[in-house]
Amino acid sequence: MAITTDLSGKTAVITGSNSGIGLGIAWELARAGADVVLNSFTDSEDDHALAKEIAETCGVTATYIKADMSKGEECRALVAQAGACDILINNAGIQHVAPIDEFPIAKWDAIISINLSSAFHTTAAALPLMRKAGWGRVINVASAHGLTASPFKSAYVAAKHGIIGLTKTTALETAGQSITANAICPGYVLTPLVEAQIPDQMKTHNMDRDTVVREVMLARQPSREFATVEQLGGTAVFLCSDAGAQITGTAISVDGGWTAM
Predict the structure, then answer these.
(1) What single-letter DSSP state applies at residue 219?
(2) Where along the chain do its domains lie?
(3) What is the second-level CATH architecture of the domain 11-189+227-260?
(4) Is pLDDT above 90 for 1?
(5) How far is the C-alpha of 229 from the C-alpha of 232, rounded, in Å?
(6) Which strands form 62-66's sheet, in the order they lie side by side?
(7) How confident is the model at residue 173 (pLDDT cuts 50, 70, 90)?
(8) Which of 64, 139, 192, 211 is within CB 3.0–4.6 Å of 51 for a Cys-Cys bond?
(9) Is 188 known to be catalytic?
(10) Which residues is 62 bridged to in the sheet?
């Protein structure tokens, strides 16, 4: 049987996908033929315009659904409202940096809810649809911090380690059902949010752009290059393809060698 990456007829639900990594993955899945459902907690004209642009450019159906990933019932409602969910991309996430003894309780709770619990709720809602369809892909966007740690990021590291564990459990519970579950673990990715941090880092360290990127921001990434949202999208497409049918319960690093150290 020829290996194919054609995802025509599949519907992908991508949480936290009106910018950055989530949007990059949505674009690549749509280019591979999948219908896509974008999501965030906002509901602006720009959000819906993104869906329209993807639909018109890629010749697929693309919609935008507002849902707050900090609320379990809205996570589950997102999948229900999508109507189909052959591919689930759990990407929504936030970050806060502080020492453990100074970490705000509200920030801890929000990070665990959005970065970890949301994936549990969407997966619980999506698996019955995948089983009914006889095919499914769950892809959780974890992080290099799902495999290693950094100081002052206790909630984020805990949530991303949890995502890896949830991925493995999902894989075991769906083994033999033509459903796979995997995690993608990015290092530093060049997103609009990261790009916006570069000027401040240049001022703080009195360095030019290339030097601050290489020596400060990418100090733990041996390649000294950012991953791109297109590369992460391509990884997701690969996991959804025939070639990925026997890859399950795995954490795939896209981190320029970060976790190899």
Answers:
(1) T
(2) 11-189+227-260, 190-224
(3) 3-Layer(aba) Sandwich (3.40)
(4) no
(5) 5
(6) 62-66, 35-40, 11-14, 87-90, 136-141, 179-186, 251-254
(7) very high
(8) 64
(9) no
(10) 36
